[in-house]
TrEMBL record:
<comment type="similarity">
    <text>Belongs to the ABC-2 integral membrane protein family.</text>
</comment>
<keyword id="KW-0812">Transmembrane</keyword>
<keyword id="KW-0972">Capsule biogenesis/degradation</keyword>
<protein>
    <recommendedName>
        <fullName>Transport permease protein</fullName>
    </recommendedName>
</protein>
<feature type="transmembrane region" description="Helical">
    <location>
        <begin position="57"/>
        <end position="77"/>
    </location>
</feature>
<keyword id="KW-0762">Sugar transport</keyword>
<feature type="transmembrane region" description="Helical">
    <location>
        <begin position="98"/>
        <end position="126"/>
    </location>
</feature>
<feature type="transmembrane region" description="Helical">
    <location>
        <begin position="21"/>
        <end position="45"/>
    </location>
</feature>
<dbReference type="GO" id="GO:0015920">
    <property type="term" value="P:lipopolysaccharide transport"/>
</dbReference>
<dbReference type="GO" id="GO:0043190">
    <property type="term" value="C:ATP-binding cassette (ABC) transporter complex"/>
</dbReference>
<dbReference type="InterPro" id="IPR013525">
    <property type="entry name" value="ABC2_TM"/>
</dbReference>
<dbReference type="InterPro" id="IPR047817">
    <property type="entry name" value="ABC2_TM_bact-type"/>
</dbReference>
<dbReference type="InterPro" id="IPR000412">
    <property type="entry name" value="ABC_2_transport"/>
</dbReference>
<feature type="transmembrane region" description="Helical">
    <location>
        <begin position="169"/>
        <end position="187"/>
    </location>
</feature>
<dbReference type="Pfam" id="PF01061">
    <property type="entry name" value="ABC2_membrane"/>
</dbReference>
<feature type="transmembrane region" description="Helical">
    <location>
        <begin position="219"/>
        <end position="240"/>
    </location>
</feature>
<dbReference type="GO" id="GO:0015774">
    <property type="term" value="P:polysaccharide transport"/>
</dbReference>
Amino acid sequence: MPRTVVALMLREMATSYGRSAGGYVWAVLEPVLGVALLSVLFSMALRSPGLGSNFPLFYATGYLPFAMFTDLANKTAASIRFSRPLLAYPSVTFLDALLARVVLNALTHVAVIAIVIGGIFLAYQLPGPVDMPSVFEALLLVALLGTGVGVLNCYLMNAFPVWERVWHILTRPLFLISGVIFLYDMMPVQAQNLLWYNPLIHCTGLMRRGFYPTYEAGYLSQAYVVALALALMLAGLALLERNHRKLLER
């Protein structure tokens, strides 16, 4: 299994990022442009961001975890479709395809986040300290949640093709309600009561707590995110285990 997973990862690296460094340059450049755009737009309208005084850091700590979740969930959901020709071989299983995509894309995003935020610290000479345990915990939750959503959608999107369109429509508002451009604490109580059930709110809040020592984020519930992610993942794995052969025959 490890050799198969590594082979699938190398195949995806060549397919998704190309055989040169240019593909990985774009993997870094794309989030940099996203953070820069948010920083410029909101610095024109606001005197200061929700935390601290540095716009790029505030929006990077919200946008980058959100981008990691979105990309990981989408690519995990497309695992069977991406590796369909190879899944015809008995030595390659749907678990190999899922694991290869999860590991490669999670590691890629962690590296990109380190490069982008490290670059912000260097460019603006920002002081520390950074609570690395909170940062790693936030990224682990994002990876777990993205995997859980992706695994379940891997079944649903293959079993019911219309679900892919429905899912993309339903998740369009996520950017606005996941703590990317605002703090949960700044919202009215009625909105907080609803937004608390969005697991991404907990991920972005924990990420920001790692970079802002005075930010307590008392609303966080890591247990909620873990329980939801595992429930989605187990449901998806059970459905795939039972139906993956039928899906491959379509």
